[in-house]
Amino acid sequence: MRYLAFVFLSLALAGCGSSPSELQYYRLPAVAVKAPQGDSSKVLVIEPVMVASYLNSNALVYQNNTVNLQLTRTHQWAEALDQQLTRNLQAHLSAALTDWRVTQQVNSSADNRLTVQVTQFHTTAEGLVLISGQAHLLTGAVVKQMPFELELPIADDGYDEVVKSLGEGWSQVASQIAVMITESPAA
Q1: Which residues contact 147 (CB under 8 A, 6 or more apart)?
Q2: Would you tell me the crossing angle of helices 159-182 and 81-96 to the nearest 10 degrees?
Q3: Which residue, among 153, 44, 59, 147, has the nearest Cα to 94 in the 3D structure?
Q4: What is the pTM for the complete model shown?
Q5: Does residue 178 contact residue 97 with C-beta atoms inside 8 Å?
Q6: 180 SS3 class
Q7: pLDDT tens digits for 148-160?
Q8: Distance CA 133, CA 107 (A)
Q9: Which positions ≥6 away from 81 have C-beta within 8 Å?
Q10: How far apart, in Å, are the Cα atoms of 149 and each of 40, 168, 171?
């Protein structure tokens, strides 16, 4: 009987010492959604944002060096990253392009269409967040391409700060895309 009590106590203590950290869930900072304007003749259809395959998981990504990426185990996106990026981009562009109707639904083949591919959206061991990719605006038969690449410092330690910095960087990308759209022939 003493032997069983010793075994259970040993297992309980071993479990306490090796228990994994609790899962932490994150989402990008919310962007205020603008109420749609009346009927605008300029329509922008945002296609779902495409992310590189290594970003297509719930894990946040940490870059140890120039060739090593790690998917975090206990720091996870609360929602799929591509969905967050798409919704966030739509909100930013709706606010920035006040004379456009920004939507995800195609109404006409004449609608302007925006596609965005994200190739980097992660943090590094050097205390930076990296965001890169490219956007394509299709206006009639004209395609305008805009690559983007940002390196932003993280203000403080911790994944909360990483996610805030990623959100700030994505806001900057959305602003660059808005400028590209206003400078396009359809604007």
Answers
A1: 132, 133, 134
A2: 50
A3: 44
A4: 0.84
A5: yes
A6: helix
A7: 999 999 989 999 9
A8: 27
A9: 51, 55, 56, 121
A10: 32, 13, 13
User: Is 133 in contact with 115 (CB distance < 8 Å)?
Assistant: no
Name the token pair of 33.
Answer: 């959604």
Cα(58)–Cα(60) distance, rounded to whole angstroms?
Answer: 7
> In sequence order, which residues have a C-beta less than 8 Å from that of residue 172 and are 6 or more positions away?
150, 152
pLDDT in tens, 55-108: 999 999 999 999 999 999 999 999 999 999 999 999 999 999 998 999 998 888
Cα separation, 135 vs 117, in Å, equals 6
DSSP 141: T
